[in-house]
Each structure stands twice: as structure tokens, then as C-alpha cells.
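Sample intake sheet
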Amino acid sequence: MEVTVERLAELVGGRYEGDGRILIRSASPIETAQKGQITFVANDKYKKFLKTTAASAVVLSEETECFCPAVIRHGNPYYAFALILDELYPEIEVLPRALDGTAVISDSATIGENCAVGALSYIGKMSRIGKNCTIYPKVYIGNDVTLGNNCRLYSGVVINDNTKISDNVIIHSGTVIASDGFGYARHDRGIKKVKQIGWVEIGNDVEIGANCAIDRGALGPTRIGNFVKIDNLVQIAHNVEIGDYSIIVSQVGISGSTKLGKGVILAGQVGLVGHIELGDGVQVGAQSGVNKNIAPGKKFFGYPAREIMQTKRIEACLSRLPDLFKRVKKLESDEK
């Protein structure tokens, strides 16, 4: 596919500078882009490559200088570039819109029109699959599962009983939805498993990465809100609630019954204890450990997590400890 710069600028609602007739065939990182390719800069540390890139066009903010053959200006370059990628690389159907003969589908399950179900997949009793869904080979869908319209489940996904998934949800390989929560009762003869009788509810336009585990509620639901984006290797325990538009980055662990408001961001390897609440818009820096409630809009960082400026002041003091220790030793020696 070849698209002119002028057409791409129109598509993203931006404006172009330079030669709008240049044809773009593909996209590439700014460091390696060549003639016929488009790239972007949304992070200041990549601006240095604007002097050397061979790209035919670059997507930039309004204020960033560039003397490339063509520039597309947009208030949000990364978002604009995402729209351009959709245009240059349209989805290619890899499965026929049909039910593979080796798939096992319960007689009481219902499959919406225009669905693809791949080889060796399983769909259990009373489950309901919406329209235009793509279920890749070797997907397991248990009993009484609801899957909305336009969903995509990649190979190796497991959706256990009673899960409720809304429209436009993408779940990547190896992820398990509605596994048992971690519930046990100690007693004088050992440890008794507490049966987990809840379920999982997932909102619209959610994407869940590979090898995640989202546990069913112990009693009642575990809830994932609309437009939530979850990276690979994330653990979400029983009865957790995640508000709309939140972003959960790789290797995060959220303990049971914790509640996240809307637009929360948890960076990589953040750990949250159970039964706490994070308000709307909270951001937590990488490798932080959160052990208490956080008010809306706050930015926390550290182990244990504190307000980010407090953590920075503590770190600044800690870096001076060796010199302070030497001064104290000298003062003690002088006193003797």
C-alpha cells in the first residue's frame, strides 16, 4: 500500500509541511527509517535523530523543528502515528469466518454471525459468543461465559466458567481469566481451601497481554473497567476492581479486594497489598510497594511508596550518607 503524505495528514486531522505528494509505503523507527518510510518523534530524547534520519516523512508536534522532505504536524504525534499504522498495515484475516471441524462446541452454546473459531478450541455449555469474534486455535471457553461482539482471543487463552466479557476485547496468548482466587483458612489440622464462587467481569475495549492471571472473585465479581490496558505478566487477585482507562504495566501484582479508580497508572513491577483503594488518576512509579490508600491525583514512588517528591528528598539524603558518616567519624576523632 502507498499513501501520500497529504492523505495521511488528512486522515489524522493534522497538517503537513513540505511535499504532500510524497508516497509512503511503510513505517520505521527514526534511527533506521529510509526513503518511502514514515516515522515519528514523541519523546525529546529522539529529537537528535531528526538531523540524520532518511525518512520521507516525520510526524511531529507543532513546536518541533524539522527539515525533512515532509512533516505531519499534530498535537499528539504518538496517537497520530497509531492512526497512520492502521492505514498502512490493515488487519489481515488469518482464519476463515467459520467454525473449524475440530473445535468442540456445546450444543447449548450460541455463536454469533461472522465468527471464526479455530482448530481444537472448546466452547462450553450455555456460553454465548457475540458477532464478529475471532477465537484462535486451542482456546478454552468454559460454561456460561458471555463474550461480546468483535472480540479476539489468541491461542492458549483460558476463559473459565461464568466470566462476562463485553465488546471489542483482545486477550493475548497464555492468559487465564477466572482462575481460583488465593483463599485459604488455617485450622488445627492444616490449611483448608476456601471455595471461590465469584466470577470476572471485563468491560468494553479492554486489552489484556500475554500470560496474565485474573482471578475470579471469592464472593461476587472481579471487575475490569472499560478501556483498561493490561500488559504481559500481570497478576490481578480476587475481587479487585480496576476503573475505566487505567493502565497496568508488566509484572504488576494487585492483591485481593483492592480498588483502583479511573485513569490509574501502575508502572512495571508495582505491588499492591490487599483491601486498599487508589483514587482516580493515581500514578505509581516502577518497583514501588503500596501498602495504604492513595488519594486521587497523587503520584507515589518507592518502597514503601510515598509521595514522589518525598521519596526523591529521601533518596537525595541517602546518597549523602557516606560523606556524612565520614564527617561524623572525623568529629568523633577530633573530640578524642
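Comment: Helices lie at 5-12, 77-88, 308-319, 321-335. The two ends are 82 Å apart (CA to CA).
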